[in-house]
Each structure stands twice: as C-alpha cells, then as structure tokens.
Amino acid sequence: MIDDLWVLPPMPWRFSYPVTLIHLQGQGCLRLLHGQTTQALLDLTAGQKRSTCFVNATAWLGALAEVTATDGGAELLVTAGCGVEIHRALDRVIFPADQVQLQAPLPLRWHGLVDRNGSLNGAGWGLPGYHWLLKPNEPLPKPLEQLKPLDQNQQEWLRYRQGIPADPGELNAGLNPFELGLREWVSLDKGCYLGQETLAKLYSRAGVKQQLRRWFAAAGTTPPQPGTSLMGPGGERAGTVSSCLNDFQGAVDRRGCWGLALLRRDWLESKQLVGLELSLPETSLFN
Question: What is the pTM of this model?
C-alpha cells in the first residue's frame, strides 16, 4: 500500500526547526491578532493557545503561527514563514488606540522529541511526544541530548509526510489555507479580518480548485522538479509539483524521490499519475 512508504522511523527520535517568538503586551493584543489572522482568538484565556494563519487580502498564505494568551497580552510563535516580516506587518497596523506594545522578534528553535508515550501533537507537526523552545546556542536538555537528530533530508521527508507548508513551495505562492489542508486553522464565523471575504467565497462556492498531496517516485524514475506541471494521459494539466527530495531512502527500505504537489480538482482521487504514487498528507484536513 502507498501509505507503507510513509511509515515513521522507530521511536523515539528528534527533529528541530527555526521559529520566531513575538511578545505582545497590552489589553488589545488578542483583538489585534484576531483581526490580522484567520482564527477566532477573542475567547482565549491566559495559558490557552490556538493555531492560525497569516494571509493577505486575497487569502494567499504567508505564515503559520500559534497564539498563546498571557495575563498581560499574548505570545505569537511563527512556526512557518518569515517571522521578521510578520513583525513588520503587525508594526504597520498598530495604533496607540489599540493598546498594544510589540516587542522585538526572538529567533528560537523548536525541538521535537517524537515518542508514542508523549502527549498528542506534543512534539509538533501532528506527532506525539514533547517539545522545547530554545535559543539557537542554548544547551539541549538531557532527553534531547540522548537522541540522534534527523538530518536535513530526513526532516524534509517528515515535512512531506505531515503536509507542513514551507517557503517557497507552499508559502507565498498564491495558495490559500484550504488548498493546503488547514481548514481547522480558519474561522468562518468570527467576522471581518484580513482575507476573510475571499476565504468565505472560496468555502461557500466550492472555489478551492486544488489540494495538497504527497508523492513518491521509485528509483529510476525521472522526478518532476518544483514548479513542474503534472499532465494527465490526455495532456490535461493535472497539478503542479511544489516540493521535491531527490534520491532519498525513506523510513522503509524504499529509495526514490519524494515530494508534495498541488492536484487539480478533477484529479483529487488519483492514486497514481505520470509514474508518481499519490496520497494524502497525515495532518491535512480538507472539506
């Protein structure tokens, strides 16, 4: 079965990736983030957090983030996309009446320890376990020190498996959250916010014309590179490759090429296409 290609390595193991933490102080913090991101945030109480997206006025996805309410404001953790750009964008829309003080962006690393005995999504990326947010040169805690980290290619493979968008293939490329399986990160009921009108139209009119899929091409197959159009047997345009990892052996003993692609609506049920084996990413949720 295709999903056997995407079996996780034996646990435990660890991975890490860069994130940006932005502290906001003041009574208007949640109101500001509520109006600038896709998720409903006003009902959060201190200690609660929620995943959200930053989109532009045409609903193109720019960044993923977690918002945590604090006693004096909020913490914004940018987990995909450019945290510095998000900070600049917020700074441009803050006025004195908002009662918000924006602190400088802080670069950190998210360290995920994947362990089936850990909490649900505790490692991040939809994986069980635990995580730590550390400064780039900060010493690792003992549970992390004792485990060998994934290398760069293994981690990229993991991103494909989970369906996590990244720049440049899935972020800032004219894609919206629905196309990337981020339905739960979007509120359709909270009222006006940046990109809300476009997202509402896409949802109510079934306007999403493509969806994210992971793909595998066996060794010996010429792999499609990012930006390549995937064509159907009759020459129809079936989709576009967004990410690719060449000549890599997955967790199971299968060497080949792995990646992500955006399939057009007429091809969403396809399991194979132009030599590629297709399947849904683990954490994606489509309507």
Answer: 0.94
